[in-house]
Structures are given as structure tokens and as C-alpha cells.
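Now for our target.
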Amino acid sequence: MAIDPKIIATPGKKINLKKFKTGYTGKFKSKKEAEKKLEKDIKSMQKLQDMLYAHDKYSLLLIFQAMDAAGKDGTIKHVMSGVNPQGCQIFNFKKPSAEELDHDYLWRIYKCLPERGRIGIFNRSYYEEVLIAKVHPEVLLNQQLPGIDSVEKVNRVFWKKRYDQLNNLEQHLHDNGTIVLKFFLNVSSDEQKRRFLSRIDDPDKNWKFTINDITERKHWDKYQKAFEDCFTNTSTKIAPWYIIPADNKWYMRTVVGDIIVRTLKSLPLKYPKVGPAKLEELKKAKALLVSEK
């Protein structure tokens, strides 16, 4: 069965997030059924990751974007629970440092891309440059961009160039063996509110909450528009955006796991075959081990 088209931002089509239902659960009739599917995929991922590492020609980059409290951390924790840490890298991109601001905005990204044979995870990513930066364009003034000395200079032409730059980056990565999977965990405003209240009321979750969460929530509509523009302009055939319903965490995690496993299975992965010389070496090594007293 193919990936549910209801969760794909169709490349070349204008995206309206209101048409993507945050409570959608697809073909699954129950939480238990979905959890069994995820458990099966986690086991499959263990074998596929091992082959990816041994094959050493491809890498996988998983990008997670979402509004606060959508469940990025939990999804990464559950879906990737079976992978070998030695073959996995995760980065959480926060406010750029002074050194990073002295380079182009993709400089810090290049340093974190996964090596061949590995799975890279970006908890937030270079897409912040067309999301947070679009809601708060004043942050762009810190990037010392030629010709951008006021917010008024950040116009449609500027954003079109940024979208093109991100598409070109992903085309380059794809051409060189890095497969990019982009997940937007689509939570509703009501569900976000419920999760925020849970973090406030539960002492064990207090550490997850900051007053900035409420400040950014006030910009909900602006963020939704920024995401729509992003998906419309950067969902491509080689790297489409998957808009994952996030109100039910069990469904969200299962779908993400399914897409990762499907993608790995689609690659021509195989264990390296050794030549005659290596086989002879193995034969001699076995003989020596067997002859030991």
C-alpha cells in the first residue's frame, strides 16, 4: 500500500493547511493497531540501518518541523528507538552563534549533514530561515546580508531566492546520495493549548515550558501562513513535505516510522560482497581459529 496521499504536500500545488486534518488517523482503527505497526517497522529499521551503513553509498536526512508541543522530541525518541546510535546523528538547531552569523545561513547546516551510511536527524532545520525568519523578519538584519539593511527590503523576491536556494541544496544532496525526508507535525491550536496546560500543571513537565511558548502562540496565524508558503514552494518530487496529523501521537509516530522504512526499502541497499582474495583470507583465518587448542 502506498503512502497516504492525504498527508503529502503535492509538489507544484498551492498548499492550504486547513485541508489537512490534524486529527486524521487514516486506515488505523485503533491505537493498538497502529502501535503494532510501529513496533514492526522499528524492527525492520534495525536491519535496514545496518544495510545502509554497510552499503556506504546513501545517507538519510530526517527533518522535523512543527509548532511548539507538536511532539517532535517524542516522535524521534519512539520511532528511532531501535536504531544503532553509532549510525545515527541528531542536531537541534537553535539561535545562531556569532560565528555562525559571520557565515552564510547554510554554513552551520553543511557541518551537520549525515555521512554516507548514516541517518541524520534535524530537530528543526534550515527551514527556520523561511519560517521564524518570515514571522520575525527583523532577525535577518543580524545576518549582515548585502542590500538588506531594513525589514522593508525583505520582499517577495528575497523569499523566492531563499526557497530556490533550499530546493537547490536538496537537489544537490539527492544527487550525491543523501535522501531527504521532511516531516511537518501538524498539531491543532486547541491541542497545543491542552499540551501547554499539561506542562504547566504537571511538575515533571514544567521544565518543558517557557513563557516564550505563549509569546509565539500569539503568532499562530502568521506561522500557519509561513508554513503554507514553505510547503508550496519547497515540496518537490525528490523531497516532498509530509504533513503528519499530530493531534494523536500514536498515529503521528506510526506514519513517520512507516515512511522511513518505505524509503529505506526503496533504496538498492545490499551488503558488500568480498572478492576471491578476501574469501581465501577468511578461509585461512577460519583454519587458524579451528586449529587452536
User: Anything to note?
Assistant: The longest helix spans residues 31-55. The mean pLDDT is 96. Residues 12 and 232 are 7 Å apart (CA to CA).
